[in-house]
Structure formats: structure tokens, C-alpha cells
Write a structure and sequence with these properties.
By secondary structure, the chain is α/β, with parallel strands linked by helices. Helix content is 28%, strand content 19%. Strand 4, helix 3 and strand 5 form a beta-alpha-beta unit. The protein is globular.
Length: 225
């Protein structure tokens, strides 16, 4: 099964070269490598870095002829993502769409109602939830036992129980940096030299009152050993 992971582009006018910093979509790189390690063909399109229009994205989806497309959903992109998901389903109603990210994890019940053309929501840390989802879709197996997944089935919405955070970060695959053009990413502070991103911990040791995970019983700070 082929999967296309797309970093959305909400910019309408300014050139990407006007930005002070542009970093790789490491969130998609983690998910892509997990899928690849389980024999799925995952590709990444960084529409933000490439400053792609919605029409460009639709053309790429049609060109790749994929059956499932995934996006990180950012709070600032809601209106744009409404438009884009509507266009994807108009292009091919059989394409399955999933969202992931902090906004999804915090407001998944609202998102499932607000986005009629989104089929699945991956909540929390998504590497293994995405693999479970594709495994079950490929086998035409029930989705009700996939923890961390919200989905639609026969006009109804289901929210499965949360998936526990991964305590041993060493079992998470190294992000697939070979799926992106690393020459696209730069920082003005380094005189426009190439930049990359590393994550050596997950979670947070602090208790900020505005954090959506404040009362999450599975919340914990973890480091790579």
C-alpha cells in the first residue's frame, strides 16, 4: 500500500526564501520510516518548503496514484485544510485521508465533526498507530482495537481508547531523511547553510496551565539513552 505524507502549505504570497528559518518535517519523517520498516511505500511531500499551491498538491496526489494521504493538522491551517480535503475527495472519493498532530490530539472530537472528508485521526505519538491503521486497512480488519485512533464507519464516529506513550524511545525508527530534499532547509543565523533537526526527548517535565496534556495520565518526560 502506497502512502503519501504531506506537510501542508498555508502561505499564499510570500516566497519561502523570505523566511528566517526552514526546517525539515521531522514529524512526517518519523511516521514514514515506521511505515517503511513495515513494508509500506511511504513518500513525503513538503508543500510548505516547496511553496506548492493546492492545485500542485492535487496534481501530485493524482500523479502518485495513492489510496491514502496523511497530513499534520496545525491550528492555523484549519480553513485551508477544509478546502484541500474537499478537493481531494472531489478528485477521488476513494482516497482515504488521515490527520495527526497536537491539534488533533487536543480536539479530536471537534475535528472529526468539523471535517466530513477526513476518515481517520491519529492521536498522540503516531508512528505505531499509523502502522496499525495500514495493517488493518490492508487486511480489511476491524479498526476498533487500534488504540489512539478515531475513525468513521457507516456514518458513525468512533474514538478508540488512548495509546500509551512509548517509554523506550530507542525502539522508534530513525527519521527517514532520504525522503526529503535536504538542500531546501536553511537558517539565516547560519548564513543560509543547510540545517537539520534532531529530537532527543519526548514529553515535558513542566506543568504549564495552558497545556492540553496537563491532566493526561500517560504524560511523561522521556529521553533517548
Amino acid at each position: 500500500m502506497d502512502v503519501l505524507l504531506i506537510n501542508p502549505n498555508s502561505r499564499k504570497h510570500n516566497s519561502v526564501k523570505e523566511l528566517p528559518l526552514l526546517t525539515p518535517p521531522i514529524n512526517l519523517m518519523y511516521v514514514a520510516q515506521s511505515l517503511i520498516n513495515n513494508s509500506y511505500n511511504a513518500k513525503i511531500i513538503d508543500a510548505f518548503a516547496l511553496n506548492m499551491s493546492q492545485e500542485d498538491i492535487l496534481n501530485k496526489i493524482e500523479q502518485e496514484n495513492v489510496k491514502i494521504v496523511g497530513f499534520p493538522l496545525y491550528s492555523c491551517d484549519l480553513t485551508m485544510m477544509h478546502e484541500l480535503t474537499d478537493k481531494i475527495k472531489s478528485l477521488n472519493k476513494d482516497i482515504k485521508i488521515f490527520f495527526a498532530g497536537h491539534h488533533v490530539s487536543a480536539l479530536y472530537k471537534d475535528i472529526m465533526l468539523q471535517f466530513p472528508n477526513v476518515d481517520y485521526l491519529i492521536r498522540g505519538e503516531g508512528e505505531f498507530v499509523a502502522v496499525d491503521l495500514l495493517n488493518n486497512l490492508e487486511k480489511d480488519a476491524p479498526l476498533n482495537e487500534i488504540k489512539g485512533l478515531s475513525y468513521k464507519e457507516k456514518g458513525k464516529i468512533f474514538h478508540n481508547p488512548e495509546r500509551r506513550q512509548t517509554e523506550d524511545l530507542d525502539i522508534i525508527p530513525i527519521p527517514s531523511r532520504d525522503l526529503i530534499d535536504r538542500n531546501l532547509y536553511y537558517s539565516r543565523m547560519s548564513k543560509n547553510k543547510r540545517v537539520d533537526v534532531m529530537i532527543t526527548s519526548r514529553g515535558c517535565p513542566y506543568r504549564c496551565t495552558f497545556c492540553y496534556k496537563l491532566n493526561d495520565e500517560f504524560r511523561s518526560y522521556r529521553e533517548v539513552i
